[in-house]
Write a structure and sequence with these properties.
- This protein has 157 residues and is mainly β.
- It has a single domain, classed as Immunoglobulin-like.
- Helix content is 13%, strand content 34%.
- It has a four-stranded antiparallel sheet, with no helix packed on it. The chain has a four-stranded antiparallel sheet with strand order 2-3-8-7, with no helix packed on it.
- Strand 2 and strand 3 form a beta hairpin.
- The termini are far apart.
Amino acid sequence: MPSRQPRREVEAFGDGVGLTGEESNLTPWAPAVDIYETENELVVKADLPDVNPQDLDIRVENNILTIRGERKFETKVHDDNYLRIERAYGSFSRSFSLASSVNSEAIKADYQNGVLTLSIPKREEAKPKQIKVNVGTHAVAAEGTHAMGTHAMAAAA
């Protein structure tokens, strides 16, 4: 199992779970979430099997990413017919604090095979930049003269 370490880009803000009405006797739940970082974006993956994408509410307010939704208990089967109920149902809410280095205005959401994937691009100024080092005879000679000093050059001659 991979070690879990807090990331500077995202930190868990807190989980809120609440159920109302007939579902209050079922176990509250919060979907499992993986968060990872690439060079260009932050990716959040949440396991949401049997959650209708229309029942999801994803928003960012004050740099807080919140994913809310509900997995509804199937009413097609009568309660007396169940032999075991282990899966949790009801409403859920997960919130995460986003760093200012991400562009929360350009989040993309994709839902496939019960997994919600949020792609949050980094701001251009937060992306790593490669600095090219120019090597030329003029720059090397000037640098060499400065580094060695006048006395060292005279001694070397």
